[in-house]
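S., here's the first fold you wanted:
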Amino acid sequence: MLDILLHTLPSFLLVLGIVVFVHEFGHYIVAKMCGVKIESFSLGFGPEIVGFNDKSGTRWRFSILPLGGYVKMFGDADPSSTPDAKVHVMTESEKKQAFFHKTVGQRAAIVAAGPAINFLFTFIVFVGLFTTEGQPFTPPRIGDVVKDGPAAMAGILPGDTFLKINTVAVTRFEDIRLEISTSRAEPMVISLDRGGVVMEKTITPKMAEVKDRFGAVHQVGQIGVKAETGKMTYRKLEFVPAVNAAVTEMGSMVGTTLKAIGQIIVGTRGTEELGGPLRIAEMSGKIGKEGLVPLIWFMAVISLSLGLFNLFPIPLLDGGHLFFYAIEAIKGGPVNESIMEFTSKVGFFFIISMMLFFTWNDINQLQIFNYVKGLFS
């Protein structure tokens, strides 16, 4: 319990607080640029703990439930930017400040700014880390091959250097781990360099249950190869290479996430790996103990995940709003109000169900029931 109070909770609040602030600040700053009046900017939901009003009348507040945040704009009925049905008549000066009286392009820009600034934040952090601390780098050369594993059966030998996995170029051993661990038990073509001779091998990874360093169990693909020991280094990059590496790293993370979601949808990957706030809190606490730099890296990854998640075309999320704005732009008028109301209810139910499911996964993965039972035994 003391560890939770001293490490887990502070690290979790720091990580989530900064990531949520960045996201909501994106909405806030672009809305201000478009002339929208901001009524409140909240970190957290529910009753206010503390807050203040700025010169423009915006209420900046910390609320009791630290699981998100919102920017409430003039004319909104609630933090999810649902139009206020009570406000039918506005003066011309009020219309100039109301979110729903802005053009569809302005509204789309305001909504898209949240995920966009999450991506920008991740990009800036990655570039900063790669130029100051360095990028993890292990040569893609095989140090050892597990006996009777898929790689050994395919004829891969120690000393072979990976060039490509299917169509994905390999430059670091970290690329090999990422590509193979997120694969399924399906054949993949691997290009190798063996003493200057390029060859191809077809390998089918085997699926294995592994625990990560936080104790969570994952189903991952394995082929039975290991990197050369003692070869992992941190390479500091100049600015332009760091920019390229940051873009590549982000693209790889987005691609891996979408690939995993696709596998879950078609049923080739289990849903037990999906995590929610409890797992983020637990990971924040453990990473926080490792130092500030790992925590900043973790914060950047969470920011990227938040930006990507919010772009999914689910009603009430930013992606859902953008989907309806796209329809509005094509048809030349807003989507029918009854359709918007119905989809908002469906979206609300879906998001709540998803959060409950993620939390249940967290409880099972973190064995919280056993922990609580142990407190009273």
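And the second, which I think is the more interesting of the pair:
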Amino acid sequence: MYFRRISLRKRLVPFVVLLAVFGMGDLSTVAQDTESGRSLVGSTFSTDDPTIRVLPLGSFHFAGAPDFNDPAAPSQQAEIRAVVDSLLQFQPTKVAIEREVEEATYVDSLYQDYRAGQGSLRVNEAYQIGFRVAKRQAHEQVYPIDYKRAWPMDSVLTWAQKHKPSFVRYATRWRKQITAVTDSLHRHEPLREILLHLNSDPFLRRIQAIRMRTLEVGAGSNHIGVEPPASVARRNMRIFANLLANSEPGDRVLIVYGTGHSHYFHEYIQGHPEMELIHPEEYL
């Protein structure tokens, strides 16, 4: 749907590895709906529409990126604020983040401290973007929806070394190509451009390609290559189920998550009869 040509400018950060893949200002203006008397924020959206609109923002993990290890750096903060300002135009009613459901009490304590001006934001996209958007929208809470599960990719690579070396060569090339692309993005592009690329359809297809090729390993015999993609799909179904448990008719949900999950969010949202996928490019 969207692909932006990379113009080279400024940073270096190692990003995706093979195993990790398997693993506007404040909108405070209030308008009055003259027919119903409802108070609506900004340009507003109808509350009579039961469709749940979901914007899944795929991101790299800030903590693993050297340029994001200093949250006080003025240039970094300016880039993050610009992204947050853009996302606020979506006017989310809820923000879901990549933190496990079991951490909800802890995450809420961090968010409440941040709302009260008593805590600094940690170096993590869930906090740097998710918390900021939620606070600017005056949300009382954020929603951790993650579910973690291990997957046996090592055993697949070990088996393929002996029985299907062509897959090992493909996986090695794939990892190098992904790393080259993401390194170039981080070396030369601001945060907005990085996120646009990571959420583009061509990049998401590239991420999904390694999972599909993994299915070939052991095909027709022990099917050892089926388990890692199946495990990833099961994990993302659990995550999506957690999203559903926290969604209500008419919600506008912003998801801040690792880009490796975006393919599944897109598929599940588009397949759900009461949801609509909002592509990040519309609000970046």
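Why I say that: The beta strands are 30-32, 39-41, 52-59, 94-100, 143-146, 252-258, 275-277. The chain has ten helices and seven strands.

Talk tomorrow,
H.
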